[in-house]
Amino acid sequence: MLLMSDAPVITIVTDKSKVSPVNSKNRPFPLEWTRNIGIAAHIDAGKTTTSERILFYSGSVHKMGEVHEGTAVTDWMEQERERGITITAAAISCAWNASCGPWKGIKQRVNIIDTPGHVDFTAEVERSMRVLDGAVAVFCAVAGVQPQSETVWRQANKYGVPRVAFINKMDRTGADFFRAVSEMREKLGANAHPLFIPIGKEENFAGVVDLVQNIAYMFIDPADMDLNPTRHPIPAEYAAQAKEYREKLIEAASDFDDKLAEDYLNGEEITSDALMTAVRKATVSMKFTGVIPGSAFKKKGVQRLLDCVVNYLPSPIDVPPMKGQDSDGKEVEVVVDDNAKLAGLAFKLWTDPFVGKLVFYRVYTGTLQKGTSLYNPRTRRSERVSRLVLMRAMDREEIDAAYSGDICALVGVKEVITGDTLCNEDYDVRLEPPSFPEPVIAMSIEPNSKADQEKLGTALQRLVAEDPTLRVKTDTDTGQTILAGMGELHLEIIIDRMKREFKVEATSGKPQIAYRETITTSSDGEGKFIRQSGGKGQYGHVVVKMEPNEKGKGVEVINETVGGSIPKEFIKPSTEGILEAANNGVVAGYPVVDVIIRIVDGSFHDVDSSEMAFKMAGIFAFKDAMKEAKPILLEPIMLVEVTTPEEYQGDLIGDINRRRGRINGMESKNAACIINSHVPLEMLFGYVTDIRSLSKGRASASISPSHFEQVPNSLLTKIVESSTKAPART
């Protein structure tokens, strides 16, 4: 059992006159009645459909949008509507009156961010999780926990986001609620417990049993669209199962509430209010996940999910204060308070065709008024907010002020990038920004005309500002513009957006692989740069030792010179030269990773030594050491999970083997076979199309970055020859 001091302190305020003094008198919804939630899951689990139902039942829209019809409110981009997938996270606000619990009948503000499920757009999930207080993890009742489900779960753990789980698609053939809960425990390590159990399943999914309140909700009239789900006594055939799972829920919640534990051990009747409070404490502690069954498409169980969002997910006041650093680098806590100095995080940029640059902003403390000047500690500059808007996907609602805990969009601030802190000038604090994965795939892009050349520069500048996983650089050897991103679909969407939004006609080349180079043994290297041209010459001399570093550590340069063999002022240019040389290895000219370079010796000339000479000497020393350290080329390896009917299993395994893949394991689930494998990225172009051909359209694949591995020697020569890069000449 946890001691009460270990469990989070939960404040439940039902009277507006008794809300915390940190609330401004002008805010429409007190902090205690505000929820910031994200909806996250694997692709095609039903996130957007769930969001649409939430908006309908909360009265924000009067007609339900459908993904397959291209009418979903949160999928507002043309590309999203054509493909039926979510590409960009959409923010939207609604209000909800809970039908049960301490806040029954009290209207709550629910700010929702609908996130993408495709692995190529994982950055959208990353930055959304960074600013949310709670999340709804959606799982498919048939497929259970899928690869991208695990990714978003890890992201939520990373940023400390409490969550409830919605097991969607309970009406589908093969749906199994209890298997999905079991998979959450096994694959995610979640302390998952049903808050409701289903009545019937597949086409007979007719209701849910509320284990907290000990009643049943029946979905009787489909024409009623579940607007008025009726309460019933628990059906006799489900009474024993409901009793069993309620006992398990009480046992799990007792770990977080001493009073509940005491009553339970003494055999006293557990009230629904006491159990609800304990479940809320457990959820906010991050050590418990309540699970709700439903079918968003069939409009079943969504209102119960909304009740759980209000009753169990935290308000901005319930979560630990956001941490940041002051100008001296000391850690400070940013505590939620409307009356404090202002600080918040710019977590997303978007170019709106009507108002220009929109900066999505989460207010952590203070009150932001329209017309306020905000200070950016990164640029050391202040910028004025000309307008403040609440986002409703693509629509905007003008507001005069945003308060602590609010998510809004700013118009008028220009020099901002994702992850910037914006605050009052006399409150110099930097909040921790979200972190993003490195791109794994690149392609060349060429404008079709001189006019397109100019527009291309503007388009790329805006798109890179919006998307932190998109990188643009010019290849020094070929002069080509190289675009790097998270996958084929990611780059395809970027090219499509250029044509539609920026009217840029451009030709894209075959995607390039983001190879890396590293070393396998230690070595010594020496670099000398000597030029005599009559008068003052150039002299730089650097000696280094190179050794392999731990995986994922990158390039580390350590100064170990003694006795002033290299003067202090020349250590920095020597280091810069080494790091510059690490951008182009000696095998095929790709960036070098996971090496330690120790600057151990060197010499200088009183007159001829300069920063430029030592920078060049650093470059030469790195190349010299690299050649002797048995360098190897690394290629990105992807984790591929294929779900296929069993009759195509042999063909698909054979196809993976042909692609230099390695089968890790297989499992059967509902007459489908799931094949787990690692496959080099180079062999995966067009893979999804190919497996559809092999399986008559019945197989699907999930591909996500895994790790880097050495390129086989048999392919090394071919890659080096075909590479547009070349090792830098020494």
Automatic annotation (TrEMBL):
Protein's name according to its UniProt entry: Elongation factor G
Domain of life: Bacteria
Family listed: Belongs to the TRAFAC class translation factor GTPase superfamily. Classic translation factor GTPase family. EF-G/EF-2 subfamily.
Cross-referenced Gene3D superfamilies: 3.30.230.10, 3.30.70.240, Elongation Factor G (Translational Gtpase), domain 3, P-loop containing nucleotide triphosphate hydrolases, Translation factors
Pfam hit, one: EFG_IV
Purpose: Catalyzes the GTP-dependent ribosomal translocation step during translation elongation. During this step, the ribosome changes from the pre-translocational (PRE) to the post-translocational (POST) state as the newly formed A-site-bound peptidyl-tRNA and P-site-bound deacylated tRNA move to the P and E sites, respectively. Catalyzes the coordinated movement of the two tRNA molecules, the mRNA and conformational changes in the ribosome.
Annotated CDD domains: EF-G, EFG_III, EFG_mtEFG1_IV, EFG_mtEFG_C, EFG_mtEFG_II
PANTHER family (alphabetical): RIBOSOME-RELEASING FACTOR 2, MITOCHONDRIAL (PTHR43261:SF1), TRANSLATION ELONGATION FACTOR G-RELATED (PTHR43261)
InterPro entries noted in UniProt: EFG_II, EFG_III, EFG_III/V, EFG_IV, EFG_V, EFG_V-like, EFTu-like_2, G_TR_CS
Residue ranges occupied by any Tr-type G domain in the UniProt entry: 32-317
Keyword vocabulary terms for this entry: Cytoplasm, Elongation factor, GTP-binding, Nucleotide-binding, Protein biosynthesis
Cellular component aspect of the GO annotation: cytoplasm
Biological process per Gene Ontology, one example term: ribosome disassembly
Residues annotated as binding GTP: 41-48, 114-118, 168-171
HAMAP family per UniProt: EF_G_EF_2_B
Gene Ontology MF term list: GTP binding; GTPase activity; translation elongation factor activity
Compartment(s): Cytoplasm
